[in-house]
Write a structure and sequence with these properties.
This protein has 575 residues and is of the alpha/beta class. The protein folds into 3 domains: 2-311, ABC transporter transmembrane region fold (Up-down Bundle); 329-408 and 490-499 and 517-570, P-loop containing nucleotide triphosphate hydrolases (Rossmann fold); 415-487, Rossmann fold. The chain is built from 20 helices and 12 strands. The chain has helices at residues 12-44, 49-97, 101-107, 109-151, 157-200, 202-207, 211-237, 239-263, 269-311, 372-377, 402-406, 423-428, 436-445, 449-452, 472-484, 502-515, 528-531, 551-557, 559-568, 571-574, and strands at 332-339, 349-356, 361-366, 387-392, 395-396, 409-412, 421-422, 462-463, 490-494, 520-524, 536-541, 544-549. The relative contact order is 0.08.
């Protein structure tokens, strides 16, 4: 948790205020038993009513001051903790936003969600307790021991026996609890992952009638977490009875030995009552510390997990100085590019070399796992190449800032991703300042107006999370419109026409020609009819380019391409 303290700098003033208020509150609580003993010994015993009212008034003032300080301290400690949680969530979210796909693959989406929500909440809750108890408990303990010693030195021997027992109990329970807290957070990740898979894959689960199977998976993960939580709670629950036993036995011992000292004339009744109060304050300070030891181990595990995210550095970094663009606008070139995924034994793509020019349509086709999507992910620099170069406008993409590079690209992913909001807001995601006319034009070219205009609110129709209230083909058309509204130098379509019927596919490709005349277009497709008119077709097989050419040339020279075509088209269509 020490590494996260630097994020508390914006809250220094309210923290100092809370500490000052807690200090005053603690001093008032330490002062009250002394005033009470004075009332008993000098007022009640002597029958001096005026003295009782006088000292009683002081007690009321001190108690009222402590109460006011407690309320204000509670308010500002909650405010500091909430602000710290907000800042930490913002820092974590922004930092994760800079990760490459490699870091996402390494940590996992479910774990990142847990770290950004549950883990930060754990730290936030502990911070509230720390601001109040971490200052109050030590001060009350030390102050209580000093004040008790001032009342009767010999009676403090009771505390000398009780305090080590409490400390030993806290240490033993904390040592056993810390590993369990770490295990709990890992198992919470697992539960989150299973739940996320169930919610996102509900259609697949129902279609394959696997509801009972998934329920069992969830129950197993849930029960695993529950068992660990029960162990932790049993362990921590043992702390309070131990505390109360020691506290009550200490009180009995104080009354027993205090009564003996009073009968011998070595101690007054008021002093013994004050001593009992100080003993209770000392014991309760240890109870407060024990509560901290319940929370701190879990929060420390959460802090380690948050630090792991914040200290993780993305593999892909912007250059200190980006090179100016010197080449043709929209020109893309691969020079002997090889790439392997982390931990993979075989390269995903090897020795890839080709170029694309503005005004041309380049298509990539190949079997499943041939490296098509991997290849296009290197252009927007989602991954960095292992060897070779990817040039955009004559500049190595590693010599450009990611923002500068991606502003040149309109990317339509294989899985259409839509966000909660209106139709127009989703299209404007590609260009925030797009006019209504530009949004309309992009939708027309993407063949999306035919279903948008049939909706009650047209472009103001609200899309559900993930676009679940539209079909797969409609999702793809909205994704294409989002790329078109940007009017980029380079269009990348990653199998973005697969959910369209042949008629819509043909109409969309015809409309695209006029829209992308001055841009470079790269299409990845499984369907031959989508790419048959491309200026150059790249045939991939096992991560390598086997042939490059137009449709007719490849039909004669490439056995791989000819096999793909013959598997999809009839002899009449091929002819």
């Amino acid at each position: 948790m020490i590494k996260l303290i630097k994020y508390l700098k914006p809250f220094q003033i309210p923290i100092y205020l809370v500490l000052g208020l807690v200090l005053f509150q603690t001093l008032s609580e330490l002062f009250l038993p002394t005033l009470m003993s004075d009332i008993v010994d000098k007022g009640v015993v002597t029958g001096d009513t005026n003295y009782i009212w006088k000292i009683g008034g002081y007690m009321l003032l001190v108690a009222a001051g402590g109460m006011v300080c407690s309320i204000i301290a509670s308010y500002y400690s909650a405010k500091v903790a909430s602000g710290f949680g907000k800042l930490l969530r913002s820092k974590t979210f922004s930092h994760v936003g800079d990760f490459s796909l490699h870091e996402f693959d390494k940590l996992g989406t479910a774990s990142l969600i847990t770290r950004t929500t549950n883990d930060i909440t754990q730290i936030q809750q502990v911070l509230i307790m720390m601001l109040r108890m971490m200052v109050m408990a030590p001060m009350m303990c030390i102050g209580g021991i000093f004040m008790a010693y001032s009342k009767d030195a010999k009676l403090t021997l009771v505390l000398a026996v009780a305090i080590p027992i409490l400390v030993l109990a806290i240490v033993i329970i904390a040592r056993k609890g810390i590993p369990l807290f770490k295990a709990m957070q890992i198992k919470l990740d697992s539960l989150n992952r299973v739940l996320r898979e169930n919610l996102t894959g509900i259609r697949v689960i129902r279609s394959f009638n696997k509801i009972d199977h998934e329920k069992k998976r969830f129950d197993d993960a849930n029960w695993d977490l529950t068992q660990t939580a029960i162990k932790v709670n049993k362990l921590m629950a043992a702390m309070m009875p131990i505390m109360m036993i020691v506290l009550n036995l200490s009180t009995i011992a104080i009354v027993w030995f205090g009564g003996i000292r009073i009968s011998n004339g070595h101690m007054q009744v008021g002093d013994m009552m004050a001593f009992i109060q100080y003993a209770m304050q000392i014991m309760f300070s240890f109870i407060m510390l024990s509560m901290m030891f319940v929370m701190i181990p879990r929060a420390s595990v959460s802090a380690v997990r948050i630090n792991e995210v914040l200290e993780m550095r993305a593999d892909i970094k912007d250059p200190i100085v980006s090179l100016p663009v010197t080449g043709n606008r929209g020109h893309v070139e691969f020079q002997n590019v090889t790439f392997s995924y982390p931990g993979a034994e075989v390269s995903a793509i090897s020795n890839i070399s080709f170029s694309m020019q503005p005004g041309e349509v380049t298509a990539i086709i190949g079997g499943t796992g041939s490296g098509k999507s991997t290849l296009i992910n290197l252009i927007p620099r989602f991954y960095d190449v292992e060897s070779g170069k990817v040039l955009v406008d004559g500049v190595d993409v590693r010599e450009m800032t990611q923002k500068q590079l991606r502003e040149k690209i309109g990317f339509v992913p294989q899985m259409a991703v839509l966000f909660t909001g209106t139709m127009s807001e989703n299209i404007r995601y590609g260009k925030e300042d797009a006019t209504d006319e530009e949004v309309m034009q992009a939708a027309v070219v993407a063949q999306a107006t035919e279903f948008i205009n049939n909706m009650p609110d047209k472009f103001d129709e609200i899309l559900a999370q993930g676009g679940t209230n539209v079909s797969g083909g409609q999702k793809q058309r909205l994704s294409i419109a989002r790329a078109l509204v940007r009017k980029p130098e380079i269009y990348i379509f990653d199998d973005s026409f697969s959910a369209l019927d042949f008629k819509t596919d043909a109409k969309l490709r015809a409309a695209l020609k006029g829209e992308t005349d001055n841009s470079t277009v790269l299409i990845v497709a499984q369907r031959v009819t989508t790419i048959i008119d491309a200026d150059q077709i790249i045939v991939l097989d096992n991560g390598e380019i086997t042939e490059i050419g137009k449709h007719k040339e490849l039909m004669e020279s490439s056995a791989v391409y000819r096999e793909i075509v013959m598997s999809q088209l009839s002899e009449e269509e091929i002819a």
